[in-house]
């Protein structure tokens, strides 16, 4: 029997009532499930022929799914690789003592956070075809990575900034007291400590990057996982539902692994005595970003 | 005057405001749907019925990890073209796609609303719920009268971020042919040789939508925050 501060330990009547609720809920779920089942069955989407290719042969996996997943991960990897240093640069830039560094960094970060990634990707794609001679078969990859970098670098900049700001003022004061310069304070005192605080937030930003690669498949002909639906359903007899189920499953598995890693990291770092103990939460928005004047959520030990 | 007409005459024939109006409509309808469904999910997740708790947790963890693009494209290819779900839109493709986009955006965003709300519920001191239970209030009464009103006030800022992300996410509807801002932009870029200007106009449009939302709701969140 679970207890919570929100409800009393259940007596016999409450238990009965909960069983009743459970029954109602099961009936409701079953009704929805039945509707889904019959409408799928009516369109012959549940026929074994449509699902069988995924289980009995390696062909769809080798020809469509694995290359698609590879492209998805490739774009995400490159985007992260470029966005991380850029984000660190702009995040530290926003904390600069010099107005001429702080203000432009802030403007750039706020600008790219306010614009949808898709707009950035479409613009990058068109710009590459107009102003550069990047071959048209890799252009979608470049465009997707560019869009992801511009957006995620500014999100990461905010994570870095919040991470550094989460450190106690005493750290800076102590560094000043022993005669460190500003650059030294940042490099030897602030950054090493704040990295532990921002790691979980960074890792969960990877989920956002992985998910956003799908935009490239839907709008820019980037051959990633989602884009493999059309050729697959054309090849295996219009098994749209089966294809989407498999693809959604792959995304869930990949992202769930990353999310679990992030929360494991968060728990572990919170336990570690070396750091200040504060971690930037992965945020209630989870995969969503923060914007404007709102600071990132800094959770203390008690939240969720 | 002359120069301005020459620079902007490529805008002729495009319904710029109309496209942004579709973006706004997508945002508002999906926000309402997501708020209702997300609150229900949060209620399930903190409630006393184990099955509902499990359902809420599973829903959030699955939906959060699927790209919105996959959900929206599935709504079009799977729900509409394969299963012929039209959501009462009949033969009108535009209406059907618009409704499917709203449905997908609402279902997706609800997971984030639920998580924001749940973290808000955690900020309400335990004494509040204990006092309410001591008065003999039932779980739904505790949630409805004591916990949620305080939780909502403390999560205005996170919810504002969800709303802003939703505004930007509406562009994904372009993938299934809803004529909103990103769709029109792609159209215009292909037809006109004014890449930088077109992109700047649409970027400006989105900044006009998202920045005031953040500022206004940031102000609201300070106004309504429960002082403790």
UniProtKB/TrEMBL annotation, chain A:
It comes from Streptomyces clavifer. Belongs to the binding-protein-dependent transport system permease family. It is a multi-pass membrane protein. It is found in: Cell membrane. The keyword Iron-sulfur does not apply. This is Glutamate transport system permease protein. InterPro entries: AA_ABC_transptr_permease_3TM (IPR010065), ArtM/GltK/GlnP/TcyL/YhdX-like (IPR043429), MetI-like (IPR000515), MetI-like_sf (IPR035906). PROSITE patterns: ABC_TM1. Keywords: Cell membrane, Membrane, Transmembrane, Transmembrane helix, Transport. SUPFAM superfamilies: MetI-like. The chain crosses the membrane at residues 19-37, 75-95, 107-128, 140-160, 188-210, 236-265. Residues 69-262 form the ABC transmembrane type-1 domain. The keyword Iron-sulfur does not apply.
UniProtKB/TrEMBL annotation, chain B:
It is a multi-pass membrane protein. Keywords: Amino-acid transport, Cell membrane, Membrane, Transmembrane, Transmembrane helix, Transport. The keyword NAD does not apply. InterPro entries: AA_ABC_transptr_permease_3TM, ArtM/GltK/GlnP/TcyL/YhdX-like, MetI-like, MetI-like_sf. Residues 20-217 form the ABC transmembrane type-1 domain. Pfam families: BPD_transp_1. The chain crosses the membrane at residues 20-42, 62-80, 100-119, 158-183, 195-220. This is Glutamate transport system permease protein. The keyword Cell membrane applies. Gene3D superfamilies: MetI-like. It is found in: Cell membrane. NCBIfam families: HEQRo_perm_3TM. SUPFAM superfamilies: MetI-like (SSF161098). Belongs to the binding-protein-dependent transport system permease family. HisMQ subfamily.
């Amino acid at each position: 029997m679970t207890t919570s501060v929100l409800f009393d330990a259940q007596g016999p009547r409450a238990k009965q009532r909960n069983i009743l609720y459970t029954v109602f809920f099961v009936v409701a779920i079953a009704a929805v499930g039945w509707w889904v089942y019959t409408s799928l069955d009516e369109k012959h989407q549940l026929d074994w022929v449509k699902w069988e290719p995924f289980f009995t042969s390696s062909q769809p996996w080798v020809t469509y799914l694995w290359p698609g997943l590879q492209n998805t991960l490739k774009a995400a990897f490159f985007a992260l690789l470029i966005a991380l240093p850029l984000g660190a640069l702009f995040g530290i830039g926003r904390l600069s003592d010099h107005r001429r560094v702080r203000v432009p960094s802030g403007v750039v970060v706020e600008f790219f956070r306010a614009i949808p990634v898709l707009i950035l990707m479409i613009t990058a794609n068109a710009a590459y075809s107009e102003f550069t001679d990047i071959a048209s078969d890799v252009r979608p990859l470049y465009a997707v990575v560019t869009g992801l970098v511009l957006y995620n670098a500014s999100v990461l900049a905010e994570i870095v900034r919040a991470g550094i700001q989460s450190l106690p003022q005493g750290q800076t004061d102590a560094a000043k007291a022993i005669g460190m310069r500003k650059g030294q304070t940042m490099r030897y005192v602030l950054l090493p400590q704040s990295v532990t605080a921002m790691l979980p937030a960074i890792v969960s930003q990877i989920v956002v990057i992985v998910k956003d690669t799908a935009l490239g498949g839907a709008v820019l002909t980037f051959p990633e996982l989602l884009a493999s639906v059309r050729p697959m359903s054309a090849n295996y007899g219009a098994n749209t539902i089966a294809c989407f189920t498999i693809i959604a499953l792959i995304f869930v598995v990949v992202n769930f692994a990353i999310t679990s890693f992030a929360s494991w990291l968060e728990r572990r770092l919170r336990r570690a005595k070396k750091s200040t103990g504060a971690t930037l939460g992965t945020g209630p928005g989870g995969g969503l970003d923060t914007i404007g004047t709102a600071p990132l959520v800094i959770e203390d030990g008690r939240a969720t | 005057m002359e120069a301005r007409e020459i620079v902007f005459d490529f805008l002729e024939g495009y319904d710029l405001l109309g496209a942004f109006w579709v973006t706004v409509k997508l945002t508002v309808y999906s926000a309402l749907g997501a708020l209702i469904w997300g609150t229900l999910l949060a209620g399930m997740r903190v409630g006393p019925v184990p099955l509902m708790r499990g359902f809420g947790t599973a829903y959030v963890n699955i939906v959060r990890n699927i790209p919105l693009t996959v959900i929206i494209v599935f709504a079009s290819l799977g729900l509409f073209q394969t299963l012929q779900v039209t959501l009462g839109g009949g033969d009108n493709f535009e209406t059907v796609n618009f409704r499917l986009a709203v449905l997908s955006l609402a279902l997706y965003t609800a997971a984030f609303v639920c998580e924001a709300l749940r973290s808000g519920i955690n900020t309400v001191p335990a004494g509040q719920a204990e006092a309410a239970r001591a008065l003999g209030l039932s779980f739904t009464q505790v949630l409805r009268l004591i916990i949620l009103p305080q939780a909502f006030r403390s999560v205005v800022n996170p919810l504002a971020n969800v709303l802003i992300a939703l505004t930007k996410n509406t562009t994904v509807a372009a993938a299934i042919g809803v004529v909103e801002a990103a769709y029109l932009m792609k159209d215009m870029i292909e037809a006109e040789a004014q890449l930088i200007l077109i992109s700047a106009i649409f970027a400006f449009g989105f900044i006009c939508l998202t920045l005031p939302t953040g500022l206004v709701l940031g102000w609201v969140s300070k106004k309504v925050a429960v002082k403790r």
